[in-house]
């Protein structure tokens, strides 16, 4: 007899509610849950694929150990005995820093790895912790930490009440929102325009979101900080700065006026590719709109000046009085949030051994992981743990990192696929599918455009241990308790620590174990006084209402105020000013090729590369599902028609794309959605390597765009990789 389960989709940040029909061990239908309090029936192709993921024959269902260069299936006891025998001696002989950890993007979409991963990582005690954050959003954590006091205090657009939305480097009609949890963004943006509001998109490409906007400004890649500074300049010049109630809670306005002074619209116009008059008009519209908000995403964070661009987004929201106001940028109030540090944010508590790059939010830039493996000496990385990550595709200079992984003495991967990264592992530990595990979106409800809470029980039983049990067993290994520790006792210890830090009593969640217990404790200590039982009784979620003003209580800075011009951020402004000056006088400048050159000043075949998000893809493993590699979800290099004609490229023909880091070949897609001088390749492809077990992905291999990205140039304050505005050369293959 078929059964129905209501689940929260864990495949992207939108947290859509799904209704799943199950017949025995088969998933027969996945559709949007029309009763879900947040998504109201919205669903995208990724959500529909949950059944295909569950049934994927390539998904690992037993641990694998590499013996004589070949993977063999083993028992869980054999797998952990191998880990204990080989990992512990490395830690004992070389120290904890000889073990590196890489946590991939899917780990934050899994409540087990979200809650129990940090417990394991702290126990390993290594300074060599890396994650997908430094190829994504780390500049936003950095700037939020210094402006507001905590790296997760990220204000999000109150999109449902705004009248003017200025969006930079974001494409939520494809991404479903990012650092902005908001299902059905198409519907939300349509509602914005229907109530007389205006959507302005700034992007080098006419994306799906740009096509749905009132206005699109095709900026040159990598110049967002210049544009944002120019907008601030106009606000000061025209006396449009109006903090309103924020004035009593803000330091640094005078400093901002001085910093913005050189960045006039006329000074930046030729560099950003937007007319000075248009910049002035945009600033006035932003300042005079009834309710307005500026929002920037991955196009603004993964560039040379990602920190400055991320900072200036919030600076503009403050200067116009739109921070913490309905319709502006607001701080969500989640029902449960993991306990954080009570101390104000700071970075640089340690530095990487080889390049001296500073720690940010507890991790080092993944761009330097290959350095730490290759360079001999004390602290050299000799072992690696990856958790739900594929850095051999997602990290910069991917070919170099791939080669470095082959030099490790030992590697363990917690992953459901034998992929481009885990093929280097000595042991792979699989986990259950999303339908076989519990779920609560601990991270993304902290970024939600509406306060909601939804608990998903496991819809199906699993023969595999839950990831939290696997991580606790690894915890036992690294703490010297052997390959068969008392997982229950370790879980009790973790729950006791969570209860202590959350100010709750562990007995309140009696009868529960694992994530159930931890989420129950966090809910009980939260501001709404909910319990897990409350969510279990509401399978379609609990609506906690629209975003509300939270200042000054949300501020965690030492001063208790918004620090608009912290030195840790403003120290990078001279570098931006020098770039502008160098471009204006034509003098040479280090990486002056980053960002598209003004029209007519570049050589034939010289372009800059930007990334591309695809609706049916979020992470590389999604390319192994037949339903998600159909239609427009293709790996091509998009080229403007004028550029293609100028160098002899034709639609469908192969192009050779080269950079300082490497070369790839892939089909050309001629399209006028890009501004001239810019080309685009999607991320997550490049499945044409030996030793993987992803048959569908291999049949749609594509090319790895991160072969072209250089691990040298970085966003200076955070070490985030530069993935947009990369100089490349195109020619017929």
Question: Can you give a write-up of this model?
Answer:
With 733 residues, the chain is of the alpha/beta class. It has four domains: 55 residues, Phosphorylase Kinase, domain 1 (2-Layer Sandwich); 168 residues, Rossmann fold; 202 residues, 3-Layer(aba) Sandwich (Dimethylsulfoxide Reductase, domain 2), CATH 3.40.228; 142 residues, Barwin-like endoglucanases (Beta Barrel), CATH 2.40.40.20. The protein is built from 25 helices and 26 strands. The strands form seven sheets. The protein has a seven-stranded mixed beta sheet with strand order 5-4-17-16-15-6-7, covered by helices on one side. α4 links the parallel β6 and β7. α5 crosses α14 and α9 packs parallel to α14. The protein starts with a strand and ends with a strand.
